[in-house]
Amino acid sequence: MDHAKLHDASVRCPHCGHRIHLAIDSSAGAQDYLDECRACGADIHLVMTVDEVFDRIVVRVRSDDENFY
Ligand SMILES: [Zn+2]
After folding, report:
1. What is the b/e burial string over 24-41, where b = at least 16 CB atoms within 10 angstroms of the residue's CB?
2. Residue list, CB under 5 A from ion ligand 1
3. Which pLDDT tens digit goes with each residue over 14-61?
4. Predicted TM-score of the model (pTM)
5. Could you tell me the distance, in angstroms and rounded to a whole number, from the CA of residue 26 to the centre of ligand 1?
6. CA of 31 to the centre of ligand 1 (A)
7. What are the structural domain ranges in the chain?
């Protein structure tokens, strides 16, 4: 089973380190959204970008206390 626009991804919860599996729908392009950690219940800010050069999906976890300058 290989759906072209649905990708499996796993990220690590920045709060407790629990690994979370996601089904990423890349048809909408780059997006960011909130998910909830099933282990500790904390909100996780996920940032998904589509790398068109390598034809892959990149998912990053953005913690709210992270600073960007
Ligand atoms: Zn967690």
Report:
1. bebeeeeeeeeeebeeee
2. 13, 15-16, 18, 37, 39-40
3. 899 999 888 888 787 888 888 899 999 999 989 988 888 888 888 888
4. 0.68
5. 24
6. 21
7. 6-62
